Structures are given as structure tokens and as C-alpha cells.
Fold:
Amino acid sequence: MASSHNDDTLPEQTEGFKVGEKKTMAEISKMDEGDESLKRYKESLGLGGGGKDLSDPNDPRVCIILSLALNSEGRPPVSIDLTTPDAVKTLKDHPFKIKEGAKFTLTATFKVQHEILSGLHYVQVVKRKGIRVSKDQEMIGTFAPNTDKNPTHSKRFNEEEAPSGMIARGHYTAISTFVDDDKHKHLEFEWSFDIGKEW
Structure:
């Protein structure tokens, strides 16, 4: 999806950090086969675990974001389906209700295909009445393509607490972006939420 939000939806860069050279899965699989630490690294990516590759040859995307769920103790999760463009387009017009002061987490479910996905981040910019009130980012990680043994990946983000008080109550808009180390935006979408006294 094209972005009109540019740098605001990219993760902050760590000074001195350089993105490593991109390697194919075959190259990584053959690297230093006798090196135990590299073997553990490959296993952490999901390489060498066997299973049938689930990559769709007709879909060029490397990362497909399937859903984003809001989890809060004592409440059923509220899941956002991100698999179709129509679902993504309507999110901004159907705000989620969040109780002031409630603690919650977000969980992203996604799949990777064709190649290793390096340094996937989640970046969220929240605005109220057009003014940015927060920018949060979280490193999701590096992942190998999914197999039938591991058909999806998921990441539960750090717990957050909704603001509370009369001034905090109201309507907010958010722009969420899934972006990798190469600054490729895999998905960017707008959504909204209302903070109120009750769920």
C-alpha cells in the first residue's frame, strides 16, 4: 500500500546499525555447517525444521499480515482481519471501544513466504484531533518462510495501558505499519478507537 505518512511510520534508527547483506535461504542453509552458534541461529529462524514450504508462487509478497488482535484480561479478544483490502479500508470508520485505564496487548498474526524476512517492526502513530499524541514501535523479529509444521507466526506486543480521565476520553485515529529492515512496508493501514468510561 502506498504511504502518505512517510518517515513518521518508519521505526527509529539505532545509530551505527547497518542492515546485513541479504542472503538467500539456500546460502544461509549452507553457511558454516559445523558452527554450533550459527546452527542455533538457523534453528531460531525456523530453518532446518523440515516441513513443506507454504509459499504461494502466484503471490509475490514476502510478508502477509493476517490479523491484529486487542487482548484485555476478562474480555474476549477483538480481532482485526487484515487479509483483504476491503477489510483494511473500513477500519477507520468502525472504531474500537477501549475502557479508560484498561491494560491491553496487541497480537499480530502473519505468514512469511519466499525468503527470510529480516527485522520486521510494528510502528503505530496515534493522533487525536489531527495532533500526534504517541508513536510506538516494537521489533517483531526475523523469520523464515512458513511451513506446514509452522503455518503462521504470531507476536504478542508489550502490555499497554489506555489513558484515563476526562481529558483522555474521546476519539483517536491510528496509523499502523509493518516494515522491515530494508524499509519495505508490508502493510500500512488506518484505524480508530474511542476511549470511554466503559467497554
